[in-house]
Amino acid sequence: MARLILFNKPFGVLSQFTDRGSQTARLTLSEFIAVKGVYPAGRLDRDSEGLLLLCDNGRLQSRISDPRFKLPKTYLVQVEGAPQEQELERLREGVCLNDGMTSPADVERIDAPALWPRIPPIRERKSIPDNWLKITIREGRNRQVRRMTAAVGLPTLRLVRWSIGDWTVAGIAPGQFEETSG
């Protein structure tokens, strides 16, 4: 049985165990996970938070991270601005990015979720509203959700990956992990 770790990656942490090529020390997975033989199944940007899966089985790692398996990834996304239905519809239909058209996404407006505080906090501007979206994609291009929201005029302020397939970060504090079998 494959070993699977569900990690709630905090903001500012790299999705790797070592930091190569940086002049300043950055936090890595090794500061949080002392489990030998597990590797990230996919990535989560340094400035994104939430669910990162790690496993010790190459086949499972591929099934999780390879876009051809179309495993849904759900994000809670705080955007700058007030999303209009036409912007949400563009996300639902797919957005043209510099590396081609995205697949359609499931998108809905949501109330601000009860999340842990982000450190550092998101800057707030009194003259510009912010709103929350729940976005589910089935591919995994580099910074895809951020680029999609920017393409429709809604820059991302905070991005939290909530789930991958049936696995979720619910109940796991930032910097903590749970172990299960895959």
Total count of helical runs of at least 4 residues:
3
Look up the CATH topology of the largest domain: Alpha-Beta Plaits
The separation of the N and C termini measures 7 Å
Could you give the order of the helices and strands? EEEHEHEEEEHEEE
Shape: globular
CATH class of the largest domain: Alpha Beta
Derived from helix and strand composition plus strand pairing, the structural class reads: alpha+beta
Low-confidence runs of at least 5 consecutive residues: none
Largest sheet, strands/sense/barrel:
9 strands, mixed
**Strand segment count:** 11
Q: C-alpha Rg, in Å? A: 16 Å
Give an account of the 3D structure.
- This protein has 3 helices and 11 strands.
- Helices cover 14% and strands 31% of the residues.
- The model has no long low-confidence stretch (mean pLDDT 92).
- A hairpin with a 2-residue loop joins strand 5 and strand 6.
- It folds into 2 domains: 1-68 and 166-182, Pseudouridine synthase I, catalytic domain, N-terminal subdomain (Alpha-Beta Plaits, 2-Layer Sandwich), CATH 3.30.70.580; 72-164, Alpha-L RNA-binding motif (Alpha-Beta Plaits), CATH 3.30.70.
- The strands form 2 sheets. Strands 1, 2, 3, 4, 7, 8, 9, 10 and 11 form a 9-stranded mixed β-sheet that branches. Strands 5-6 form a two-stranded antiparallel sheet.
- It has 182 residues and is an alpha+beta fold.
